């Protein structure tokens, strides 16, 4: 297994978005491919609106991601994408939602919220491997706003950055999610792949 390419994935969002579900599904997909994986929650606040950060590391000995070490940054909320940029490796891949779910501090007017253009500029200053998508809108189109996270995972699997494609994620969804939510998530998967290629 020592020849497994090391891939460090940093995921960030806000509570109530399903960031940890997405982390678990991605880790299970990696495992299903016979690859060594470590996943963890760095900083999680279960209540809605709190920042949630998690990691999925493929073929890595250390379970941590330091600044400048993430090969891939997935931001389920654009402000959190911007906040997590220090973790990104130079020229790493950024997949980010364009739709805000402002944290409490912004909702209460204690903090300014950057515009999506500010965020796109900040990301472009770090890498040119960037994909933005309206994940909540995609999730709603699939049937549930949280399914937007699955759409983003699907886009990641279709990006060519991982040693497997969207069909591996599809098999994991079928094997691990309750039947009643499978259809929504499989639709989100299809829409996520389409959004990446749009």
UniProtKB/TrEMBL annotation:
Q: Could you say which EC number(s) this protein's record lists?
A: 1.2.7.8
Q: What class of enzyme is it?
A: oxidoreductase
Organism domain of life? Bacteria
User: Could you state a single Gene Ontology molecular function term?
Assistant: indolepyruvate ferredoxin oxidoreductase activity
The Pyruvate/ketoisovalerate oxidoreductase catalytic domain, residue ranges:
15-193
Matching Gene3D superfamilies: Pyruvate-ferredoxin oxidoreductase, PFOR, domain III
User: Which SUPFAM superfamilies does the entry link to?
Assistant: Pyruvate-ferredoxin oxidoreductase, PFOR, domain III
The reply on keyword Cell inner membrane is: no
UniProt keyword Zinc, yes or no: no
Keyword set, alphabetical order: Oxidoreductase, Pyruvate
- Entry's InterPro entries? IorB_Oxidoreductase (IPR052198), Pyrv/ketoisovalerate_OxRed_cat (IPR019752), Pyrv_flavodox_OxRed_cen (IPR002869)
This protein is called: Indolepyruvate ferredoxin oxidoreductase
Record the organism: Pseudodesulfovibrio profundus
């Amino acid at each position: 297994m020592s020849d497994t390419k090391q891939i460090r994935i940093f995921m960030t969002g806000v509570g109530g978005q399903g960031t940890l579900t997405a982390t678990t599904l991605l880790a299970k997909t990696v495992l299903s491919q016979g690859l060594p994986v470590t996943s963890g929650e760095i900083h999680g606040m279960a209540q809605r609106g709190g920042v949630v950060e998690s990691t999925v590391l493929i073929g890595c000995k250390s379970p941590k991601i330091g600044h400048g070490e993430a090969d891939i940054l997935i931001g389920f909320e654009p402000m959190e994408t911007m906040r997590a940029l220090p973790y990104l490796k130079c020229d790493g891949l950024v997949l980010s939602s364009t739709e805000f779910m402002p944290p409490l501090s912004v909702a209460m007017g204690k903090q300014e919220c950057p515009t999506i253009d500010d965020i796109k500029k900040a990301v472009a200053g770090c890498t040119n491997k960037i994909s933005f998508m309206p994940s909540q809108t995609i999730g709603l189109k699939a049937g549930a706003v949280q399914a937007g996270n699955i759409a983003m995972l699907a886009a990641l699997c279709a990006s060519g950055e991982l040693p497997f494609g969207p069909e591996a994620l599809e098999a994991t969804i079928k094997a691990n999610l309750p039947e009643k939510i499978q259809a929504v998530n499989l639709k989100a998967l299809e829409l996520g792949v389409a959004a990446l290629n749009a």
